[in-house]
Amino acid sequence: MPMMIVMLHQISVRAALLALAASFSLPLLAQEATLAESAAPVRRYLVGAALSSSQSHVGSDERELGLQPILGFWVGRYRLSTGRASSLWNVGRATVVDPGLSTTLLSKSDWSLGASLNWDGGRDSGDDPLLAGVPDLRSTLRGKLSVGYAFAPRWSLGLSSSHDLLGHEGGGRYSASLGYRQPLSERSYWDTSFSANWGNRDYMRSHYGIPASTLRAPYQLDGGIEGVSLGLGYTTALNHNWVGYAGLSLSRLLGDAARSPVVGQRQLWGASVGIAYRY
Question: Which of 25, 101, 134, 240 could make a disulfide contact with 117, Cβ separation 3.0–4.6 Å?
Answer without folding.
Answer: 101
